[in-house]
From TrEMBL:
Protein name per Swiss-Prot or TrEMBL: CULLIN_2 domain-containing protein
Phylogenetic classification of the source organism: Eukaryota, Fungi, Dikarya, Basidiomycota, Agaricomycotina
Taxonomic superkingdom: Eukaryota
Species: Ganoderma boninense
Gene from which this protein is expressed: V6RAN7
Amino acid sequence: MVKEATLNIDSIAASSFQMQEVFAGYRQSSDVASKRRVREAINAALTSLPDWPQPLMF
């Protein structure tokens, strides 16, 4: 599991940075429609994430 986490650390860091940028833009936006689209996109992305860490198979 440590090896897999190490292999994916770059994409995890990039995803975290992107989510922070989206959230900052969301908070500063005054357009209700764009806020709704951002909220829907974030909710869709979060619900499609797999449970992590996945259960170990023995």
